[in-house]
């Protein structure tokens, strides 16, 4: 049972990344893979500030700003230099590896015996349960903020930017600036996942972000499948399903490990799992047509 | 209202596929004028419209709107004066957003898109009343995604959206080209009504010579990036439909 609780907690940690990918991929329709770099960036900034005994109210804004800067850079390269979004993301992600290594100073930084977000506040005595409640509150607050943002005039303009660019330009929106803002927001969220995971697992590692984009993508695709299934249009429900997607994704991976699959094969199982979810709706469509 | 002075636009300059889309056009469109532009494919009509809208910037020459030099102003800033209806019904609306959200954006075309929630019950009611005026029965569907509507319905709504915020110039680029004859008729009537009601300056591109004959206070024909015919006022009124066909003979 503990095994699945850990998976649930991990899923909650990754829900920020899932929301980030949801914003870049579904709202802005931009395939952004700065993720691998900005996630690690969030982790290393957290680790270095924690070891320098900085308080949470310094670390949290620093992580958000660092992630936002990485995303904005991808956005600027994509919109101002007219570079393909995928390539822009790869460029920033690659450059971030050196940035992250410089910030961290070495390839791995343990955070043992340092106060973390999960130990400074004590809701219940059991450590795992305490972590759960803190993560739950954290995720609810983020989801509420994003959900509210998407309902505002600015948020509607954001959603229209990825949906009909010609329309929103003729309605007076600078789409370049909007995309830069959107990618900054998406990567700030991604960095928040790095912030949570570094404290949850108790260390930051230079390679913690390798292939992490698939976690976000997988979660969003699970959510999308459910959204199409139930023909949902509500922004709030979509966001909740994205969160559910992040948790389901981790639970499936935990299940895979618990039935005795070699951990070496975990990434191939992950890739295969995402492939199955992506192709399922198409396969069932083929049969019915 | 709109003054275009010696404007040139060439695409792919110096390459084998060079196109001289607009070859030095000077045109004064007066306040409240409903200008119809006809011309064969490749005559530069759409480029001229895009130059006015700002989605294309001229190689040389100047453009001014309402006394302001807008030659180097990007399209999203010119939206202060201009509303557009595109040839493709998909371009003028956001398909995944609800009708209501589309209208919300249109209602703040000239304003800042800020961090407050603007879609409330009062706004919803206002949109419902406006949409009901179209007589398409869409007032009960305003929470539906725009993409669930037909092309004709979307074009009609795009027109309605253009007058949700203060608007001086309405650009119509073959708004009925993708529609069946009945929807096309509804859209053109709606456009004509709105242009009169709000005293808009309108520029309307069409290949439909019947529409060109029926609507507008002035008509120009373009060819090879130049204006080759220009009739307004009583000359436009006394124009026969057959004369128009002769222009293309």
Strand content of chain A: under 5%
Number of helix segments of chain B? Answer: 9
Count of β-strands of chain B: 10
CATH class of chain B: Alpha Beta
Task: Identify the CATH homologous superfamily of chain B.
Answer: P-loop containing nucleotide triphosphate hydrolases
> How many DSSP-defined strands of chain A?
2
The string of secondary-structure elements of chain B, in order, is: EEEHEEHEHHHEHEHEEHH
Question: Secondary-structure blueprint of this entry?
Answer:
The complex is a heterodimer of chains A (289) and B (249).
Chain A: H1 2-27, H2 35-51, H3 56-80, H4 85-104, E1 108-110, H5 117-120, H6 127-151, H7 153-163, H8 165-170, H9 175-201, E2 203-205, H10 213-230, H11 235-258, H12 266-288
Antiparallel strand pairs in A: 1-2
Chain B: E1 2-11, E2 19-29, E3 34-39, H1 45-53, E4 60-65, E5 68-69, H2 75-78, E6 82-85, H3 99-107, H4 121-132, H5 151-162, E7 169-173, H6 181-197, E8 201-205, H7 209-214, E9 218-223, E10 226-232, H8 234-237, H9 241-247
Parallel strand pairs in B: 3-8, 3-9, 6-7, 7-8
Antiparallel strand pairs in B: 1-2, 1-4, 4-5, 9-10
